[in-house]
Give the backbone structure.
Amino acid sequence: MNKVQFEQLDETLYHEKLENGLEVYILPKKGFSKTYATFTTKYGSIDNNFVPLGETEPIKVPDGIAHFLEHKMFEKEEGDIFQQFSKQGASANAFTSFTRTAYLFSATGMIKENVETLLDFVQEPYFTEKTVEKEKGIIAQEITMYDDQPDWRLYFGIIENLYKNHPVKIDIAGTVESIQDITAEHLYTCYHTFYHPSNMMLFIVGAVEPESMMAFVRENQMKKTFEKPENIQRIFPDEPVEAAIKERTLEMSVQKPKVFVGIKPEAVNLSGPEMLKHELAAQLAFELLFGRTSDFYHHTYESGLIDESYSFDYSLENGFGYALIGSDTQKPEQLAEEIQNTIERAIEMWPFGQTDLDRVRRKKIGFFLRALNSLEYIANQFTRYAFNEMNLFDVVPTLEALSVEDLQAAFYTVSRESQRSVFTIVPPKKDSE
Amino acid sequence: MFQTINVAKGVNVHVNKTTQFKTINFSIRFKDKLTKEKASARSILANMLQHSNEVYPSHTALRMVLDDLYGTSLYMDSTKRGNEHIVTLNVETVNDEYLSETGVLEKVMNLMYIVLFKPNFEDGLFKQSIFEREKSAIKERIESVFDEKTRYAQQRMLEHALPDHPASISPNGTIDDVESVTNELLVAEYRTMIEENEIEIYAVGDIEPETVASYIREFFHFGDREKSIAAPPLELKKPEEPHVREFEVMKQGKLHLAFYTPITFKDEKFPIMQLMNGVLGGYAHSKLFVNIREKESMAYYVSSSYASQFGLLFVLAGIDANLEEKAVKLILEQLEEVKKGNITDTELDQTKALLTNQLKEALDSARGQIEIYDQYMELSDSFEPDDLIIRWKNVTKEDIAAVARDISLEMTYFLSGKEEDSNE
């Protein structure tokens, strides 16, 4: 077991890569009575085209399958695994993102029992045609629920606009139609390919004793046999840097229009420290341009062009990413134009210097330290970073090393007009009511 | 957990000195009675005070100072509990032990003083342009509820069931009441808040109780104030129309049921009602989840929640628009099972285990500690989480069945797509 100390942060992280390839991290937190654990596979909605384990030919699977699989992991021959966690006083849950599927629990007691339940239920699949059919009704309601949420539709609408071929444009849960094609056999194929321990990470944080917990996990894994790990071959289509669709509008039951300007980043093939540096630099650049202290924010908020729903974000993964800026607004066209003009002006003449950088850097460091009070943030973000070969605990030193030029350079990769798109949701026209 | 120091009549400082967190959290709560007019005015007020002030006269200036203080988070919110309206100043700052700089804490305390005591006045009134802007911000916030159909359906249901009752009054007030707030009225409301409201001040982090108390005494000068008279119990009138259907352009049907129970937060039997809610629909092992989601595959979400301040129990489900009747029938069947005492040992143990876990987990966050303490203080001055856990432990199935038998369905509300669209 390795031990890494982060003195300034007063944290110690324990790590071991087990024989079967599973990466295990344990972070004890002083004073906490709660423990939070995530068991995550590097498998999400974008992994829909791959060579199944032990085969040679690539296959394509129905949209929404990673999420469907996540649902079905909870059902076992002897019943629902939620029941087991509840008996052990744990709240369990799971989520599927573009790139990850995570199973998790939080509890204040019976931690070893709960860790065992977590490991065992994710490592013992049980799918039948009957249970798969039964789940379709539940997931159809989940999809319908999201269909009625304008903020979700806005988010997916802009991603669909930005991407031409990449599967990030496919809704994570699929559609009511696409999930009808899912079979138990599909689930087993995906499971065997992506749920191998060598493609997974266990993160335990909270009231936990690292030595004995690591031994416990090791022992649990030694009892099980797995096939020899293979490199997973995932196939992604070519994707142009330009946004696929410039502009689209959707009618929905909303009280006022909503708009997002999306920008497709150029730098989507990064990983490790380079990716961390780029992502943080771009985030600080967007903070300066569009954050609460920016001229843009001041001007658009005071004039009523944006409201409390305003948000901006820059996020990067391997193969895709996006910057999003938007708000509820009575004047979506004007707001989209102001956003684009702000970007244009920053390209013509970069307006920020050292003092500006120092200020947003402090803000970001403070945010990060506050986030370290959250066990959920630590486990989920650490895993996300690690899957991209970055280390969450490098955030502060990386921030401290950034220069104004780094911010500028990162910003230029997300700034060209051809990379941008606008998606708008408007209330239904009066006469169609 | 918290040490309490009284700094003036009606003003208390509660501090939990702990090294559990990397930050120090403050929460200053101003409590007044809940009416639509008060809620509307006080929501604007909360926005005004967090926007800018005499020392930092623009939003940008204030936010820059916060960024420089290592992204200290400072915001005000407007919430309600029972028949109280609460305006809170929330501040979280990094413990400077983790920084290469010291003195951050004092700057932050000074900033809290400025936010509360140096409003952005011009000739004795709030700056008119900011006043107008924040007035519309609150109206926009109220209007935006419509976009989130689950929240919207819940609000509509409460408005139909209990009009003008604190249960249905939004902590942000109403569009009309916000509209009618004048600058003069807002200044008066501000004075009332500072001079007359009961105030609870919380601090959680590596900080001495006396440090906070003496700072408050020295700089904030809160005078004595009368403790507001304990409000009479809130009566729940029967809804005029017990079954309401409304339509919007949407795909899913949102079913919201309201049940009344005589047991409120202050009742001896409150812990039993918490367990009853858990057995019925609070969790993934609960009867509603197991039977309506897992067995019938009818819903993705179906759950119950207990609004203990009012004695209300809600059941919410997202279902196919054609299945309202079936869903209501199934939900009532599950409640009937609880009333009959058809609860397994496992269901009872699971619910006790999860309630206990939830309470302990909540106490692992500074905000959670403040919320729980602030609420339970109403019951006793010396709240101990373990007392509640022991009370849950002693509850039997028959206790739960007995409180369930006093629950009555009073309102069925269903929001779905247009009638002509629902047969697709």
In short: Chain A has a mean pLDDT of 96. Chain A touches chain B through 71 residues (CB under 8 Å).
